[in-house]
From TrEMBL:
Protein name, UniProt field: NAD(P)H-flavin reductase/ferredoxin
Domain FAD-binding FR-type positions: 103-203
Protein species of origin: Caballeronia udeis
PANTHER family the UniProt entry points to: NADH OXIDOREDUCTASE HCR, PROTEIN RFBI
Cofactor requirements of the protein: FAD; [2Fe-2S] cluster
Pfam families registered for this protein in UniProt: FAD_binding_6 (PF00970), Fer2 (PF00111), NAD_binding_1 (PF00175)
Amino acid sequence: MTHSIALQFEDDVTHFIACTEDETVADAAYRHGISIPLDCRDGACGTCKSFCEQGRYDGGNYIEDALTDDEARQGFVLPCQMRAKTDCVIRVPASSTACKLRRSTLRGRLAAVDRASDTTLTFSIAVDPSIKIDFLPGQYARIQVPGTSESRAYSFSSSPGNHNASFLIRDVPNGKMSTYLRQFARVGEPVTFDGPYGAFYLRKIERPLLMLAGGTGLAPFLSMLNSMVAEELLHGDGDQRVKHHSIRLIYGVTRDDDLVGLEQLDRLTEQLPQFGYVTCVADSGSAHPLKGYVTQHITSENLHEGDVDIYVCGPPPMVGAVRNWLSEKGVKPENFFFEKFAPATAMS
């Protein structure tokens, strides 16, 4: 049986490899042109020590000096000995360049482009149906602006494993990608993108989740939630680790016109009974029932006395404000994952 292994490198580059159950992860990586740093292949040196964030595996044979029993219990592995039993996510303590990794570049065609609101655009790229677009839900791609040598980074809003990738972005006046999509884009035109990138992605769900989105920071959460739905469909009766934990999203924007994706979120609440969301608008003149910032709408029930994984995606001031709010409240979540983005004219 063959499993998909996501190798997450220190420079936030992720590469997916196929690994059979009778080969080690290091051997599978080498077969894909990736040389995970190691000084032996018999579990003696510990040079290749990595961390398996998700999945089941046989740790293989090694000596205590290479990997202690305590480290093994925590999830540390030696890729030169490890054999995957399921799909896995492995954090490799090295940069992708040090491992001679070449990022995956895909060429597709613009499948759709729409205006979600006066301030927001959505678009999708389709690749050959024989190709799967692999990434971890929450990661991003760098997309080349057609007709230029420049590229822009956008989070996937779709779930991985399909041949169609979707994106939700802010329409920035005079922004290169925004201007292309708004004025010149035509369905069917070629588009090139590469990746995936980023350390902001959905980890194994072991406790309640609190997701905090600012503006188009909603995109990676749509990817995460859509991937959960895909998992439930794949497993028939659902992935039990997801079903037993609450998932709450607080989605904040500046003005009423910035609220998008609500139909998708409503659909997701039907597909994921454990999921719920609220929206808020910072503009004091808004007619929206909930005003203010996301931190003003976090409840004690959302925090589970700290037994919660918090994911935040939004502008840098928002991420900083959430950190400060948690510190002032004396709340230390089990995990705090974040992605900052700064939509400026020169970058969009």
